[in-house]
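Notes to self after the call with IL:
- keep both proteins in one doc
- input above output, always
- annotate only the second one for now

Protein 1:
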Amino acid sequence: METKNYRSLVVRESEDKKFTSAIEELSTQNLPAGDVLVRVLYSSLNYKDMLSASGNRGVTRKYPHTPGIDAAGVVEASSSADFKPGEEVIVTSYDLGMNTSGGLGQYIQVPASWIVKKPAGLSLRESMIFGTAGLTAALSILKLADHGLPKGAEILVTGGSGGVGSSAVSILSHAGYKVTAINGIYDESAFIKSMGAADVIDIPDPAESAGKPLLKDRWDAAVDTLGGNPLTFALRSVKANGAITCCGNAASADISLTVYPFILRGITLYGIDSQNCPMKTRVRAWELLAGSWKYPWLESISTEVGLDNVIPSIEKIKAGKHRGRIIVNMKD
């Protein structure tokens, strides 16, 4: 196969253990081994990409490295019978952008088992407005639906202005559920309500519920994207036999609570792993995102940047100042 040069975000570690990012020109001959070479047309920015770009060893072990846990593009070459050159595909999660060169480069090379064929109801650009964040939200809502959540149920979403949170608010409200969202550090209540949230509340103050094993039961279920105190609040506030999904730890990886939500209200806590979820479930979620869960205001929750503006956009995520989804046009 012909070797191609391409542009990519590269994070490097200096001798004094500091990490710097720059746009560099690379060669496809240096990509990791894989069944399928994909020309990336769109990517997106996620919290995990910020961690990788910041030198977080829990995400990326070795540098230099190209982050980007999301990629959508066209098959350039394939040794797999499942994918042919010219096919439009989506690659999210697994090891992409963590220790495998990621979607913030114009080419990726990955195993065929990581790839989803783009559903007919989505464009490549739209698939990256969803990205891992939208997939994670969809997996969370699928888990609640399979738990037996009735239409019209009242659902709490933590981190309502973030990538996963805004996707969850949008999908749920579009699907006919009544959504209450927890605001972020910055007031984004107007933005959250524009996605269909019936109510927006501030981040709960832990001091107000200190020593209380249970709080007033207010919601049928919850989608938690933050961990920490917001998850603790949700666990103590969901109605009997309700369910909560947990997919993040931006607030904290620790939670402080008693067993009472579980033994007195029968609450179920589901962990959501979008990185390594089974392909059958992954495809099911993408089909729903391309179909009945594709909300009409999809474009309004996204901001598009080019590769040259990725570094300042990552800094916004680091500072907690981003809202919705940031997609990256990789075509230039």
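Protein 2 (the one to annotate):
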Amino acid sequence: MTLRGDTYFSHTQHLDRWDAQGTTFILGLDAHAKAVGLADALSAQAWTKLERLPKYEILTEPRTTPERAKEGIVREKGFQNVVLVGEDVAEIEYRPAACRKTYRLVIVRKNLSVQRGEQVLFDEVRYFFYLTNRRDLDRPGVVARADGRCDQEDVIAQLKHGVNAMRMPVDDLVSHWAYMVMTALAWNLKAWFALLVPAQERGLELLKMEFRSFLQAIVLLPCQIVRTGRRIVLRILNYTPWLRDLFATFERLQRLVPG
């Protein structure tokens, strides 16, 4: 298990203890003056071009990259735009002030071009730092593992702003905990539903969908309730592209749950 987090998780006073316990970590480090100075002092030979690892394996044929329409509009209207020219990566041994051990500090240098319309205003360099005790990964592997934590940050954002788990209308800690568990269950139900969708691609789309969009697509459907004899008929009054997946998943649940 590897602990991953952004700069807010880089509690350097705990790194030696975590390392002694056998806990591996890849943590972001603030681009403070000392770290930036170390990066600026590196020779040109210390840097290599960063080859980003693919996010997934292509099982069929690679798709054609669509034209970036927004980029053309920004350039046409003369707005200021930051363009990524290239990325380089380097590595040094680094000992934080609160540590007795040294760790790997992987540095990503982003070479940027600040433009307005077709005119280049100036070039800019930004550094990103990753502190880790993983010795088995190469530099692109460390960067890829660090960037992989973004999914969990998206989940936290959805819990805060999607299901409103942090808006607790109660007055004590136990009630706060219970409210957060109940609201988090709504997010889990969305994930479970997405995993049960028979069409895998549609299920993955639902899995990544924001909670508010999920409500509009699956939950908040206008419906007429008709009582006829000994049965109740539900008539959906609006068509959405997700209805087929809703019915297919409902039929699958009927087969999975006996009775």
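Annotation: The first helix runs from residue 15 to 20. The first strand starts at residue 2 and ends at 5.
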